[in-house]
Amino acid sequence: MKIYDEIIKKLNKNIECSHTQTLRINMNSWPDNDSNSVVFMPDMAYELGAASMPSISIQMMTTDSSLVKNNEILLIGKDISQIKEDTPYARIIQLLVDEEEILLDNTIYESIKCIQHSKYHVHPYGFMTRISVNSYREQVRVSKEAVRKGLNFSKIGAAYIKQYCVHKAVKAVRVIFITSLDYDYIELEKLAKQSETITEALDHALKDFQLNSSNCNLEKLL
C-alpha cells in the first residue's frame, strides 16, 4: 500500500516546518454519543471550517513504518478551549496498515472499505462533524457545554485512534489537527484533492478485484 506515500511525505515535510504540538493519548477520556451528537446553533460555541473558511479532511494508508511509526496526535494551532470564534480546520489521518493482513483477507474490498469508513463512526459528545461523502471538506460544530467540560483535541484524536485500531490490519494511527490561521491551506487542499483522486481509483480497482478475484492485480496496485 504505497500509493499514498508521496502525499504523506509532502504532508510530513510541511508539518515539520510548522509549530507542532504532540498531544497525550487517553483512549477512554471522553464520552461517545453514538450517531446523535447534534449541536444546534444556540448551543454552539463556534464552528471549525465554517462557511467559506478552509475545511479539509484527508485520510491515507501506508505500509511504510518510517512514515507512520506509532499512534500519535499532533496539533498545529489552537486547542478547543483556546478558540473563541469560527476558525479554519483540517483533520488528517495517516494509517500504517499490514499489507499481508489485508491480502490474506477473503473479503479484501470490504476490509479496506471498513477501514476507510471508520471516520464516520466517531461521534464525540459535543463535537458534531459534518462530512461530505463526495468531498474532502469537513466542518465541525463544537458545543459550549463540551468546551466548558474540557473537550480538547487530545480526546478527539484518541477517539479516532480507538476506532481505527478496531481493525486488525491497522497497526498505527497518526491524527493531525490544524486550526492555525497562518497554515498553507491552499497547498493542503491540493494534496487533499490528489488523495481523493487516489482513493477513488483504489475504490474502482477494489471493486474490479472483487468481481474478478485477481490477487496478482491487487498486489501490483498495493
Quick structural overview:
Helices cover 36% and strands 23% of the residues. With 222 residues, the chain is an alpha/beta fold.
Descriptive notes:
This protein has 222 residues and is an alpha/beta fold. Helices cover 36% and strands 23% of the residues. The protein contains seven helices and eight strands, in the order H-E-E-E-E-E-H-H-E-E-H-H-E-H-H. The protein has helices at 5-16, 99-104, 108-116, 144-148, 153-164, 185-212, 215-221, and strands spanning 21-23, 44-48, 55-62, 72-76, 89-97, 127-131, 138-143, 170-178. The strands form two sheets. The chain has a five-stranded mixed beta sheet with strand order 1-4-8-5-3, with helices on both faces. The protein has a three-stranded antiparallel beta sheet with strand order 2-7-6. A hairpin with a 6-residue loop joins strand 6 and strand 7.
User: What would you call the shape?
Assistant: globular
Q: What amount of the residues lies in strands?
A: 15-25%
The total strand number stands at 8
- Measured distance between first and last alpha carbons: 4 Å
The structural class is alpha/beta
Features:
222 residues; 8 strands; 7 helices; 36% helix
Set down the secondary structure blueprint.
Layout: H1 5-16, E1 21-23, E2 44-48, E3 55-62, E4 72-76, E5 89-97, H2 99-104, H3 108-116, E6 127-131, E7 138-143, H4 144-148, H5 153-164, E8 170-178, H6 185-212, H7 215-221
